[in-house]
Amino acid sequence: MKATDEKPKPIFSEKTNKEKKDLPFWSIIFSFAKGEFRWIAIAVIASVLTGVMVAIQPLVIRYIVDNGISNTAAPPEERLNIAAIFCMIYVGISILRVTFWAFGYRHALKALEGLVFRIRAKFFYHVEHLCMSFHEKNSAGELYNHLMGSPITNIRTYLSQMILSIPYQSVSFVISAAALLTYDWLLALVLLCTIFLMVLCNFLARKRMRKIASEYIKKETETSQYLTDVLHGMDAIKIYSIEENIFKNFRNYARMIREEGVRLNYSQYLAGVLPELVTFLGTAVIYIVGAVSCIYRGLSTGTLFAFINSMGIIMNTMTTFLNMELTRQSAVSGLEKIMNVINRESTTPDVAENKKRDVSVEKEAALRKNGPCIEFENVDFSYEEGSYLYKNLNCQINYKESIGLVGSSGSGKSTFTKLVMRLYDVQNGTIKVHGRNIKDFKSHDLRMTFGVVPQNPFIFHGTIMDNIRIARPDCENIDIIRAMEIAHVHEFVNDLPKGWHTVIGDGGMHLSGGQKQRIAIARAVLGNPDILIFDEATSALDNVSERHIQEAMETLMKTHTVLIVAHRLTTIKNVDRIMVFDKGEIVEEGSYDELAQKEGGIFYDLLNN
Asked: What's the CA gap between 493 and 480, in Å, rounded?
């Protein structure tokens, strides 16, 4: 958690980065916009009508001045009446302009929020279903930034401009440009020179802006990663009393974001200043040329006013169009980041719906044949390419058999449980559950067969009952109560101020290790699984808590197939069989008493050391 200048590991593969160049931006956006086209059409039509109103306003001003104020041929009262009528027309057009814009804006928001919702839902669903290998390599902070940070914001900003600003400004630009050409050729020539200088200034600033915006997003992502890590590791921060060091690191990251933010925003300001100065200069020249034209060339004052107003519309439109490229690049970059995750394939791909096997049917068939519950056949597995943990591993576990998995750290005992649940796929060989290759089951169906009690169970913010119910959201309260009884949860929950309705903080900070473990057991039991896995469930507990957990485990061993990854060897005294792992191999098997008496064996050494 230290602030460094090290580059974060890339979240995407080299192949994916290469593919980013050809990102079909609009086809992807259209796929997410399904169901929103009606709102988009309404917003675009309203925007076009707004543009018409904007372009007409300067024409009305011309009539106010020429036909009313400056019309010396008419008597004063008539001039005033003409000016008043056209002013009322101007107000009416303004009301229509605001009404059309508000109507379009509301429907554009509906479309944009619907589209963003679909992107977020697709992203989150895919990330949830990606394999463990992906989550080990990509930080939660980086993924959170993809979902809620700049990438989504940039997409929304660009699409908002495309739906609202571009239609109305395009229409007003065309109408205003057509009108300008009828006003005066000399003024139009000055305006064209001004537009050329604006385009040139924008072109010079664009390349620098892209680089700075890219660097800002990179720094923002680094900061998100760090903050997520810190917030998840608050226990460790307190335990090691490193608050000051963490705060210093946070200040460094915050300072980095501040500096990049100032740099980005100031660069954006400078990028806009030059075109703005050109606009001011062009406006001044227009006034001078307009004055000369009015005095010496017979140009009417109303025409000059109308020209200046129309020019303002055109200049604003040009500024928007010129800045659109920068906005588009940010949006494309954001969508690339999101799609590179969405397009990432899982290393444990799910079976097709029409080819999946039914777990309960396969279980009944295996029981009829008196086959094993779990079977490893010639399994090779490695976490990293070229470094195998398992090589040609074979074993069988029968129904309602309790198995203790023992070995030193890194020997492969926890990996055994991860593979049987298909959190990772093996490189070679086959793993079977209920006599069927686990790849033939849907991942959800397979994992519902297991109830897992990890060493450090995650406790969500919510009540104790909510934390147990997540295993089966549709269950009745009576089912939860039964699960609590099996897991001995009642022995501590009745002492809490609101019983099982007591709200516990993030990570279960108000619960002891033993209480968390008992909640985890209740979760595992509530799902009514065929196989239970206890992954070092008592390794960090006091004797009283261990006794409660042990009683729950022994009760469940009578009715379930149970795998116990054991750190404390006393917890597996009563299992049917112990499998001893060493460097990815099962080197010893037998009951507790048999292995305890086998001098020189690994289990014997573990027991005595």
From this structure: 13
Indicate the pTM of the whole model: 0.68
pLDDT tens string 475-534: 888 888 888 888 878 778 888 778 878 887 666 667 777 788 888 888 888 878 889 998
Parallel, antiparallel or unpaired: strands 450-453 and 436-437: unpaired
Q: Is 597 helix (H, G, I), strand (E, B) or coil?
A: coil
Token pair of 538 as six digits? 């008592």
Determine the Cα–Cα distance for residues 547 and 516; give it in Å rounded to an integer: 14
Query: CB of 566 within 8 A of CB of 590?
Result: no
d(CA 405, CA 372): 17
Q: Which domains does the chain have, with CATH numbers?
A: 14-342 (1.20.1560.10), 458-528 (3.40.50.300)
Q: Which residues, at least 6 apart from 563, have a Cβ–Cβ distance to it below 8 Å?
A: 397, 403, 405, 416, 417, 420, 531, 532, 533, 534
pLDDT band with cut points at 50, 70 and 90 for residue 154:
confident
Helix 513-526 to helix 543-557 angle (10° resolution) is 10
**Please, what is the Cα angle at 338 between 250 and 215, to 5 degrees?**
45
In terms of C-beta density within 10 A (0-12 exposed, 13-18 middle, 19 or more buried), how is residue 119 classed?
buried
Q: b/e map of 321-351 (b: 16 or more CB within 10 Å)?
A: bbbbebbebbbbbbbbbbbbbbebeeebebb
